[in-house]
Specification:
It is a single chain. By secondary structure, the chain is mainly α. The protein has one domain: TorD-like, CATH 1.10.3480. Helix content is 67%, strand content 0%. It is built from eleven helices and no strands. The chain starts with a helix and ends with a helix. The model has no long low-confidence stretch (mean pLDDT 94).
Length: 203
Protein backbone atom coordinates (compact mmCIF):
# COMPACT_ATOMS: atom_id res chain seq x y z
CA UNK A 1 0.00 0.00 0.00
CA UNK A 2 1.37 3.42 -0.97
CA UNK A 3 1.44 6.36 1.44
CA UNK A 4 -1.28 8.14 -0.54
CA UNK A 5 -3.50 5.02 -0.44
CA UNK A 6 -3.00 4.85 3.33
CA UNK A 7 -3.94 8.53 3.64
CA UNK A 8 -7.06 8.01 1.55
CA UNK A 9 -8.14 5.20 3.88
CA UNK A 10 -8.32 7.83 6.65
CA UNK A 11 -11.20 9.56 4.84
CA UNK A 12 -14.57 8.86 6.47
CA UNK A 13 -17.40 7.16 4.57
CA UNK A 14 -19.42 10.38 4.75
CA UNK A 15 -16.59 12.40 3.24
CA UNK A 16 -16.16 9.81 0.49
CA UNK A 17 -19.85 10.26 -0.40
CA UNK A 18 -19.39 14.04 -0.44
CA UNK A 19 -16.38 13.68 -2.73
CA UNK A 20 -18.27 11.26 -4.99
CA UNK A 21 -21.10 13.76 -5.40
CA UNK A 22 -18.71 16.62 -6.12
CA UNK A 23 -17.03 14.40 -8.73
CA UNK A 24 -20.39 13.45 -10.20
CA UNK A 25 -21.45 17.09 -10.58
CA UNK A 26 -18.05 17.91 -12.06
CA UNK A 27 -18.43 15.14 -14.62
CA UNK A 28 -21.92 16.28 -15.66
CA UNK A 29 -20.82 19.90 -15.99
CA UNK A 30 -17.57 19.18 -17.84
CA UNK A 31 -19.29 17.72 -20.90
CA UNK A 32 -22.52 16.10 -22.07
CA UNK A 33 -23.22 12.67 -20.52
CA UNK A 34 -22.81 9.58 -22.66
CA UNK A 35 -25.13 6.58 -22.36
CA UNK A 36 -22.99 5.04 -19.62
CA UNK A 37 -23.25 8.15 -17.44
CA UNK A 38 -26.98 8.47 -18.15
CA UNK A 39 -27.38 4.83 -17.07
CA UNK A 40 -25.46 5.62 -13.86
CA UNK A 41 -27.83 8.52 -13.23
CA UNK A 42 -30.85 6.25 -13.74
CA UNK A 43 -29.42 3.90 -11.11
CA UNK A 44 -29.20 6.62 -8.45
CA UNK A 45 -31.56 6.55 -5.51
CA UNK A 46 -32.08 8.85 -2.57
CA UNK A 47 -33.92 9.15 0.73
CA UNK A 48 -36.83 11.48 1.55
CA UNK A 49 -34.57 14.46 2.28
CA UNK A 50 -34.25 17.37 -0.14
CA UNK A 51 -31.07 16.02 -1.72
CA UNK A 52 -32.47 12.49 -1.95
CA UNK A 53 -35.59 13.77 -3.71
CA UNK A 54 -33.48 15.88 -6.08
CA UNK A 55 -31.39 12.80 -6.92
CA UNK A 56 -34.53 10.74 -7.54
CA UNK A 57 -35.82 13.46 -9.89
CA UNK A 58 -32.49 13.45 -11.74
CA UNK A 59 -32.74 9.67 -12.17
CA UNK A 60 -36.28 9.97 -13.59
CA UNK A 61 -35.26 12.57 -16.18
CA UNK A 62 -32.11 10.64 -17.14
CA UNK A 63 -34.28 7.57 -17.84
CA UNK A 64 -36.06 9.36 -20.70
CA UNK A 65 -33.01 11.26 -22.01
CA UNK A 66 -30.99 10.09 -25.01
CA UNK A 67 -27.29 11.06 -25.36
CA UNK A 68 -27.98 13.17 -28.48
CA UNK A 69 -30.61 15.21 -26.63
CA UNK A 70 -28.29 15.64 -23.65
CA UNK A 71 -25.54 16.87 -25.97
CA UNK A 72 -27.86 19.42 -27.66
CA UNK A 73 -28.96 20.63 -24.24
CA UNK A 74 -25.38 20.91 -22.94
CA UNK A 75 -24.29 22.84 -26.04
CA UNK A 76 -27.24 25.26 -25.82
CA UNK A 77 -26.58 25.88 -22.13
CA UNK A 78 -22.81 26.18 -22.09
CA UNK A 79 -21.44 26.58 -25.63
CA UNK A 80 -24.03 28.06 -28.02
CA UNK A 81 -23.29 30.21 -31.05
CA UNK A 82 -20.78 32.65 -29.62
CA UNK A 83 -21.74 31.75 -26.05
CA UNK A 84 -24.18 29.50 -24.27
CA UNK A 85 -27.14 30.53 -22.16
CA UNK A 86 -24.99 30.35 -19.00
CA UNK A 87 -21.36 31.25 -18.33
CA UNK A 88 -20.33 28.83 -15.56
CA UNK A 89 -17.32 30.76 -14.25
CA UNK A 90 -16.69 32.27 -10.83
CA UNK A 91 -15.19 35.43 -12.37
CA UNK A 92 -18.30 36.05 -14.44
CA UNK A 93 -20.72 35.47 -11.56
CA UNK A 94 -18.71 37.57 -9.10
CA UNK A 95 -17.52 40.42 -11.35
CA UNK A 96 -19.57 40.26 -14.56
CA UNK A 97 -16.42 39.55 -16.61
CA UNK A 98 -14.33 36.48 -17.46
CA UNK A 99 -10.70 36.00 -16.35
CA UNK A 100 -10.92 38.49 -13.51
CA UNK A 101 -9.52 38.62 -9.96
CA UNK A 102 -11.41 35.49 -8.70
CA UNK A 103 -9.53 33.42 -11.31
CA UNK A 104 -6.16 34.86 -10.27
CA UNK A 105 -6.95 34.14 -6.61
CA UNK A 106 -7.98 30.58 -7.48
CA UNK A 107 -4.75 29.99 -9.41
CA UNK A 108 -2.75 31.15 -6.38
CA UNK A 109 -4.66 28.81 -4.07
CA UNK A 110 -4.26 25.93 -6.53
CA UNK A 111 -0.49 26.49 -6.62
CA UNK A 112 -0.31 26.48 -2.81
CA UNK A 113 -2.17 23.14 -2.74
CA UNK A 114 -0.25 21.55 -5.60
CA UNK A 115 -3.34 21.44 -7.85
CA UNK A 116 -2.53 21.69 -11.56
CA UNK A 117 -4.84 22.03 -14.53
CA UNK A 118 -5.34 18.87 -16.61
CA UNK A 119 -3.29 19.05 -19.81
CA UNK A 120 -6.26 18.54 -22.14
CA UNK A 121 -8.45 21.21 -20.47
CA UNK A 122 -8.41 24.71 -21.94
CA UNK A 123 -11.26 26.26 -19.96
CA UNK A 124 -10.37 28.81 -17.25
CA UNK A 125 -9.88 27.01 -13.94
CA UNK A 126 -12.78 28.85 -12.26
CA UNK A 127 -15.26 26.80 -14.31
CA UNK A 128 -17.88 25.19 -12.04
CA UNK A 129 -16.92 21.68 -13.25
CA UNK A 130 -13.25 22.20 -12.36
CA UNK A 131 -14.13 23.58 -8.93
CA UNK A 132 -16.37 20.58 -8.16
CA UNK A 133 -13.51 18.25 -9.14
CA UNK A 134 -10.98 20.21 -7.06
CA UNK A 135 -13.23 20.01 -4.01
CA UNK A 136 -13.61 16.24 -4.46
CA UNK A 137 -9.85 15.84 -4.81
CA UNK A 138 -9.15 17.87 -1.67
CA UNK A 139 -11.59 15.80 0.39
CA UNK A 140 -10.04 12.43 -0.52
CA UNK A 141 -6.42 13.58 -0.78
CA UNK A 142 -5.88 13.46 -4.52
CA UNK A 143 -3.45 16.38 -4.23
CA UNK A 144 -1.50 15.02 -1.27
CA UNK A 145 -2.97 14.51 2.19
CA UNK A 146 -6.77 14.81 2.52
CA UNK A 147 -7.57 18.44 3.28
CA UNK A 148 -8.64 19.25 6.84
CA UNK A 149 -12.20 20.45 7.35
CA UNK A 150 -10.85 23.95 8.01
CA UNK A 151 -8.94 23.92 4.72
CA UNK A 152 -11.96 22.60 2.82
CA UNK A 153 -14.07 25.31 4.39
CA UNK A 154 -11.59 28.07 3.52
CA UNK A 155 -11.41 26.94 -0.12
CA UNK A 156 -15.20 26.50 -0.39
CA UNK A 157 -15.98 29.85 1.22
CA UNK A 158 -13.58 31.66 -1.09
CA UNK A 159 -14.12 29.96 -4.45
CA UNK A 160 -17.44 28.09 -4.42
CA UNK A 161 -19.78 29.44 -1.74
CA UNK A 162 -20.08 33.01 -3.07
CA UNK A 163 -21.58 31.97 -6.42
CA UNK A 164 -22.23 28.23 -6.94
CA UNK A 165 -25.74 28.24 -5.42
CA UNK A 166 -26.66 31.14 -7.71
CA UNK A 167 -25.28 29.27 -10.72
CA UNK A 168 -27.20 26.08 -9.88
CA UNK A 169 -30.41 28.12 -9.42
CA UNK A 170 -29.85 29.64 -12.87
CA UNK A 171 -29.29 26.15 -14.27
CA UNK A 172 -32.59 24.99 -12.74
CA UNK A 173 -34.55 27.74 -14.48
CA UNK A 174 -32.57 28.08 -17.72
CA UNK A 175 -34.65 28.09 -20.88
CA UNK A 176 -32.71 25.18 -22.40
CA UNK A 177 -32.59 23.08 -19.22
CA UNK A 178 -34.41 19.75 -19.09
CA UNK A 179 -31.98 17.12 -17.80
CA UNK A 180 -29.79 19.92 -16.48
CA UNK A 181 -32.68 21.50 -14.58
CA UNK A 182 -32.61 18.40 -12.36
CA UNK A 183 -28.81 18.65 -12.10
CA UNK A 184 -29.28 22.28 -11.07
CA UNK A 185 -31.69 21.33 -8.30
CA UNK A 186 -29.39 18.62 -6.95
CA UNK A 187 -26.39 20.96 -7.12
CA UNK A 188 -28.23 23.80 -5.39
CA UNK A 189 -29.47 21.57 -2.56
CA UNK A 190 -26.01 20.03 -2.14
CA UNK A 191 -24.40 23.49 -1.94
CA UNK A 192 -26.94 24.51 0.72
CA UNK A 193 -26.12 21.38 2.75
CA UNK A 194 -22.38 22.06 2.44
CA UNK A 195 -22.83 25.70 3.46
CA UNK A 196 -24.75 24.71 6.57
CA UNK A 197 -22.27 21.94 7.47
CA UNK A 198 -19.32 24.31 7.18
CA UNK A 199 -21.19 26.96 9.19
CA UNK A 200 -21.91 24.47 11.96
CA UNK A 201 -18.30 23.29 12.00
CA UNK A 202 -17.36 26.72 13.34
CA UNK A 203 -19.73 26.37 16.31
Amino acid sequence: MTASEAQQMDVSAEDRLRADFYNFLGLLLAGPPDQMLLDQMVGLSGDDGDLGQAIQAMARVAKVTKPAAAEREFNALFIGLGRGELLPYASFYLTGFLNEKPLAQLRNDMAVRGITRAQNVYEPEDNIASLMEMMAGMIVGRFGSPASLDDQKAFWNKHIGPWATHFYSDLESAENSVLYASVGTAGRVFMEIEREAFRMSAA
